Amino acid sequence: MAGTGVRRSVAQRERVERRRAVRHHAMAVAASAVVAVSTVTGVLTATAGGDGRDTARPGTTRSPVLVPLPAVPAPAAATSLVPSPSPSPPSVVLSAPPGPSRTAAPATPSAAVPGSGSPERAGPVNATLHRHPASQVLDWVAAHRDDPRRPLIESRIAARPAAVWFAAYNPGAVTGEVRAVTAGAAEAGRVPVLVPYAIPDRDCGGASQGGAPDLAAYDGWIREFAAGLGGGASIVVLEPDSVALSDCLDAAARAARYASLARAARTIHAASPKARVYFDAGHSGWHPAERQADLLRAAGAASSGDGVFTNVANFHRTADEAAYARRVLAALGGPARLGAVIDTSRNGNGAPAAGQWCDPAGRALGRAPTTDTGEARIDAYLWVRLPGESDGCTGAAGSFAPDVAYELATG
Known about the structure:
alpha/beta; seven-stranded parallel beta sheet; 9 strands; globular
């Protein structure tokens, strides 16, 4: 993975929201009478604001590089990734050779071509999810064989598939980094989950700021990212916070970002027809579904993507996210094939009290990663945020915190 950006402070966001609420109320009355990622080996951090909003949030350490993710896919039953008929940015540091994993081939679709309207997308994917074999949690497990917490952390976290983040703007290197992950997945017949996180003005200039210098540079980087995907099936979680957290941009900059995201999805499909690309839908505690659908439509999610993702780095319960995702999809319109993926990495006990976002106590692992959800229009439960990596309170942001991991595993 690579580096990802940090959110604005909770207090700041709450003040902004209060000011907006006052303005909206005044307007209504008048009328009648709206993730530092460090280059720590394989770590992702995230934050949730007091209003329940959060973004992928990495900690601040060294400059982002590609960092590996945690989790080894436990032998799971074959899953199918199909749009049912009816989420501190981590960085990917390939510090170890990619593990075996190979994506199963879905039905052969027509390749998406940049600029095309709504080409056919990849059909069903029948394979288990991939776990990249180099990560902080695996390093910790290997170095602490006698730690009494080790068996539970190993079996419940390290043995699960998780996403691999690419948060460093590193033209010339990203293709090889992506290929290392997808080649390992292809060998084992598994499906990798990849998170490109390099959009300009990432995190609205907050703690996770970063990304490509401009959209032209980003377009070139995403072409290199796509070139590493190969011919196997893959799941691409495209730029967390890029749509839901775009209100800091003016109208022209927002439109330019949305156009770039649509191009990114088309570029990925053209390079890898079996890839499934999901756009940022925030989460159930953020924008109303209809508002989020409007933003996604403007970003080309209905015509260029395969669906939406929710709850990245957040804690909202799976049932709430599934219901929210379906409302977003219904409001979005577009082909019936569009589905949703949900980050369930640490939502087992739901969201903490308002204002508690930094390594909050009492959290638990959510549903295990799978593409066999049994839920209409929910294509997969994924661990996009990496369980056990600190938000910056229990340990350095982005570092693996065994106490946090153990609490999640036992929660």
